[in-house]
Amino acid sequence: MKRTILVQGAGSGGGNNVINSLRKSGMETRILGSNCLHHSVLKSTADQTFLLPESSKPEYLPALQNLLVKEKIEMVVPQSDREVNAVSLHRDQLNCRVFLPEHDVVETCQDKHSMFLKLNKANVKTASAIPLENLDDVDKAFETLPDSPKYWVRLRRGSGSKGATWVKTPEQAKAWIELWVDLRGQKVSDFHILPFLPGRDYAFQSVWKNGELVVAKMCERLEYFMGSLRLSGMSSTPEIARTIRDEKALETIFKAINTVADKPNGNFNLDLKADADGAMNVTEFNVGRFCMITPIFDRTGVANTVEAHVRCAFDEDFKIKDPIDIEEDYYLIRELDTEPLVIHKSEWDKLTETSQRSL
Questions:
Q1: What does the pLDDT look like over 324-357, one tens digit per residue?
Q2: Judging by DSSP bridges, how do beta strands 151-155 and 165-167 pair with one another?
Q3: Which residues are 189's β-sheet partners?
Q4: Are 194 and 152 in contact (CB under 8 A)?
Q5: Do 145 and 130 contact (CB within 8 A), yes or no?
Q6: Exposure b/e, 124-142, CB count within 10 A at least 16 = b
Q7: Which of 356, 309, 342 is closest to 27 using CA atoms?
Q8: Within 10 Å of residue 298's Cβ, how many Cβ atoms?
């Protein structure tokens, strides 16, 4: 049966990657897209793409409702935190399938400090975070937090490492926050401060149905996309990543997911970073949507996570022998304006050896 699915954020890298995974899944689908940016609509790879208002605007919901009815859309797949929140909030007013966690789970996970508080209470490994109300709180945070060579300053909400950098002193933290307040309209209370975690950096993507794990994938960020152009040298998305299975990290991940959701449903994606002792700490939850780097997950292993998400939404059976579907040693290589490359380590080594011989 051919199903009509709306992928929001179409035309962005993440939205187009979801569309590509849908096509590679082999499911019969009519793929529609939407975006609030005209130039992104033009870049969409969906069969047809529509311009919608921003999800924060009052006209967003009626415009989305009209589109669902007009195009007989059976399922909506949001692909940004803002649209995940909007779709989740209004799910009962949408005449289509929505496969998201409970709204209180969405709210908790999208506020990083609320998420930290919940995980810390359950003894899930996370870095201590101090919320700010005013600039004087920065000095108090540095006095309260454990000693660290560096500290991480970032926004409590949002993705893409927006407003994030590491600093060494309270003065540097204040200067960074003041710039964002003065030049970008943020508030001091939008930020919090935590110790900088210097170790390995993991991304995890999973789909759950009624409390049961359907499929899980994991990779390690090795180099950061345009990291050299950022003050921190880092970003939330990798230029090079590789698939990896880390059992201790998986224990932390599953404990974290079952802490924030009594009965996980939909997508639960986490970022983790190791402290100086090598222990992995949960640093971020991104629920309800897919990671930007979905190609490394859907072109490796047995299962396609986007297919799993859609089939679960329609209550179809989707079971694989081992839901922790991590095929190790595959590399993702990304560059601006190029198709992401997924390649096995054996091919990577062969190409490296060939290029070295040619020098």
A1: 999 999 999 998 888 889 999 998 888 777 766 6
A2: antiparallel
A3: none
A4: yes
A5: yes
A6: bbbbebbbbeeeebbeebb
A7: 309
A8: 25
Q: Confidence class of residue 358 from pLDDT cuts 50, 70 and 90?
A: low
| Domain enclosing residue 310, as ranges | 201-357
DSSP helix/strand/coil, 9: coil
Residues 314 and 343 placed together within one structural domain of the fold:
yes
Number of domains in the chain: 3
pLDDT in tens, 158-177: 766 778 898 999 999 999 99
Has residue 104 been placed in a domain?
no
Whether 179 and 221 map to the same domain: the answer is: no
Indicate the pairing of strand 130-131 with strand 191-195. Answer: antiparallel
CATH code assigned at 234? 3.30.470.20
Here the tokens at position 129 are 């975070």
Residues 248 and 157 in one domain: no
Q: Mapping DSSP to helix (H, G, I), strand (E, B) and coil, where does residue 142 land?
A: helix
Spatial contact of 282 and 253, defined as CB atoms under 8 Å apart: yes
Closest listed residue to residue 129, CA positions, set 105, 94, 155? 155
Q: Dig out the tokens for 110 from the structure.
A: 């999208």
pLDDT per residue as tens digits for the range 93-129: 999 999 999 999 999 999 888 888 999 999 999 988 8
